[in-house]
User: What shape does this take?
Amino acid sequence: MRRCLTFVKEHPFWEKYPLWLCVVVLVVIWFVASFLITICFGAATRGLAYLLALPLVTVGLYLAYERTQSLKKQNKTDGDRLLAETFARSIELLGHRKEAVRQGAIYALGKIAEDNHSELTAIINTLCAFIRHNRLNSQLIAKQGNTSKSEEYDVSEHLPIDIDAAVRTIAKLTQSLNSEDDDKSKNKKYDLSNTHLFLADFSNAKLVDFNLSDSYFLDCIFENTNFSNSNLVSSVFHRSDFEKATFDTKTEVKSTDFSKAENLTREMLEEAEGDRKTTKLPKGMEIPVSWPSP
Assistant: This one.
């Protein structure tokens, strides 16, 4: 019986014709068989006709179920293959010589992460690496030399469109991070260290578990940004806006330069793990009481 059902199920007929047509054919056969039995043997045999049709209906339902499951598996396989191809193609296009093409690849990666939460961490890390190793970043590092000369930058009015797209995509994707994604250990999941950015908008971003150490941020926006469990050690935030930003006890701000940060308050830094001796605060701001004495 099993061998017979397998033969029927794997017959090319089911791949050639749609499921609804197969069901219609079985129903028609059922009614015809019932009608013929009733005509030949009388109304008293109507129950027998239904009984004889039962195996046919059962086989039809079984085949319909198997067909549905097969289509689901095939759709998942096709979806996984398309996802892998799109991901690989987008990664490849991040190295394209045209900014607009790189921008499109970044938005494509963002869409993949939105639709596939399991890829979120990998894609955020990919975008972080893209920002760290972009041509602009290399030029700024070479030009800066050290953070004390940061005001000598001759920056344009806006970020290149591909870097801006990466920043905004990271900010958007981090907003969808769930509490179970947050690793409260000292190990940081996302690396934006040694990064030099200007006019970058991280508004409403959830920069949890980010390594932002040894970086320079000029005129950046961190409005309503969450820095929980992030490393800001030895970074400079020049004219960067921290309105409604939040820190926690695992946010490291040692040797961090906030001297020209905007809308940064003492209350915000009370939660952070700071250092009284090396951290530079805005003029007139008192050192948070929670910070240990040197």
Q: What stands out?
A: The first strand starts at residue 190 and ends at 191.
